[in-house]
Design a protein that fits this description.
The complex is a heterodimer of chains A (270) and B (169).
Chain A lengths: L1 H14 L4 E8 L2 E7 L19 H8 L7 E5 L1 H12 L8 E5 L4 H7 L29 H12 L7 H5 L27 H10 L8 H5 L6 H16 L33
Parallel strand pairs in A: 1-3, 3-4
Antiparallel strand pairs in A: 1-2
Helix pairs in contact in A: 2-3, 7-9
Chain B lengths: L1 H11 L10 E6 L3 H10 L8 E6 L7 H9 L4 E6 L10 H18 L7 E5 L5 H18 L16 H8 L1
Parallel strand pairs in B: 1-2, 1-3, 3-4
Helix pairs in contact in B: 2-5
The chains are: A alpha/beta (270), B alpha/beta (169).
């Protein structure tokens, strides 16, 4: 796939379809992002196409404003969904980006428990099959669920890794820094509010890439937590983030009666 | 005079095993707050365990407020606003309804009883309904019991199991 990718990048630059290409270069363990605008650039021959995950969407947001022409970005399906969400929030001009989508290997898809390893319209040959299991172990039954989650949350060291790694967590004024909501600089943080604030804020934009869980030094099953919120949004409001550039989050528009998640008559547990 | 103040303090103490429950109610200025007012001037009796916060519209209630209420040990949170279609700001309560659904499901998924949350539409003319809602919600919360997140349940939410074990040694 590496040779195909090199040819594709060079062709794009030669034909002028893209003014620049953003990709990863180097070998496993020494990978850096690179931008090439000349098809003869030696960096293109070192393009990386292995299994390490990097947030190309975040790099794209940094690179895009410095180019007047279109920028092609070598990315996985996760990055493309992130870009769609970022474009919805006016963080990037999506029409200036040409997604150069590459498929993930079966090994990576299995490790991520990913149901979308191959981008739609992918031009590379691949045998990768989607994985449809639910990631992470099973949650305990009703009675123990709170202690299950509190035990996980209590390991949090407030490193802010989950917030910092996430390209969709971009607010300049972060609720997690609000001293009215959380004890400032308090260690360990107030739980469960610390994790729930992020879960509720990510509910309509999380694209389930799993980077937060990967960087978490305390191994908190964050992905499962956010998937719970995502599941609610899908079930109640029929919305999945990252799929359609035109479809707005139901939490950001007022909507109509009949689309209120079954809350038209209020809510009381019987 | 000092004697009476002492007595007052004693009566304020919770009875053994029957600690007072705490319910936080967010009331919309135009409907439910007026409804609560009507219940008051109509001299309807309802339980006194509710602390109310008046907001201009239920649509202004951030999900963070609800999380903060539970973090601070509220046993239940009630949101009451205008009926769908009667909102003073036309569609403010549509946003409330959708947010409420997501936060209810999230709290349920980490093991907090969804019975601790309630969303009601109470208009300015429904003083009686307001009294009924408060009575039935208080009843329900008493049945469920004190919030597991409240510090009086012996669980300091900011301590890990390891810390608690260290201290008990």
């Amino acid at each position: 796939m590496k040779q195909e990718l090199i040819q594709k990048i060079k062709k794009m630059l030669e034909s002028g379809e893209a003014g620049a290409v953003l990709f990863l270069r180097g070998e496993e363990g020494d990978i850096t992002p690179a931008v090439a605008s000349d098809p003869a650039d030696a960096a293109i021959d070192e393009v990386y196409s292995g299994d390490s995950k990097f947030l190309m969407a975040a790099f794209a947001c940094l690179v895009e404003p410095y180019h007047n022409e279109k920028v092609a970005v070598v990315m996985r399906e996760c990055d493309r969904r992130m870009l769609i969400e970022l474009a919805k929030h006016n963080k990037i001009a999506f029409d200036k980006i040409i997604p150069l989508s590459i498929p993930c290997s079966q090994q990576l898809a299995d490790a991520c428990v990913c149901d979308h390893p191959v981008p739609p319209g992918c031009e590379f040959d691949t045998t990768t099959r989607p994985v449809t299991n639910e990631p992470g172990g099973t949650e305990p039954e009703d009675g123990d669920r709170l202690s299950y989650w509190m035990d996980h949350f209590s390991r949090c060291i407030r490193c802010m890794g989950c917030r910092n790694v996430c390209p969709l967590c971009y607010c300049a004024d972060c609720a997690l820094d609000n001293p009215e909501l959380l004890g400032p600089e308090m260690f360990p943080p107030d739980i469960p509010i610390f994790h729930l604030i992020r879960a509720i804020d990510m509910a309509d934009r999380c694209i389930d890439c799993g980077m937060c869980e990967e960087v978490c030094p305390a191994d908190i099953p964050l992905r499962k937590l956010y998937r719970n919120a995502l599941g609610s949004l899908k079930e109640a409001l029929d919305y999945v983030p990252g799929l359609d550039l035109k479809e707005k989050s139901p939490l950001e528009v007022l909507g109509e009666p009949g689309q209120l998640g079954g809350m038209e008559d209020g809510y009381r547990r019987e | 005079m000092a004697d009476t103040s002492l007595k007052k303090d004693q009566t304020a103490k919770p009875e053994d095993g029957n600690e007072k429950i705490r319910i936080l109610a967010f009331l919309c200025n135009w409907c439910s707050y007026a409804g609560a007012d009507l219940a008051g001037v109509s001299r309807l009796q309802y339980p006194p365990d509710v602390k109310s916060i008046r907001v201009m519209c239920t649509g202004t209630i951030s999900p963070h407020y609800i999380l903060k209420a539970f973090q601070e040990g509220a046993d239940g949170v009630l949101i009451a606003g205008c009926h769908i279609g009667d909102c003073h700001y036309l569609k403010g309560n549509y946003a409330t309804a959708k947010r409420f659904r997501v936060i209810k499901d999230l709290l349920e998924s980490i093991g907090i009883d969804p019975g601790r949350l309630r969303l009601e539409w109470v208009s300015a003319a429904e003083g009686e309904k307001y009294a009924d809602v408060i009575a039935s919600f208080t009843e329900q919360i008493k049945e469920i019991g004190k919030s597991p997140l409240s510090k009086s349940m012996g669980r300091d939410v900011n301590k890990s199991k390891a810390q608690v074990a260290d201290e008990s040694v």
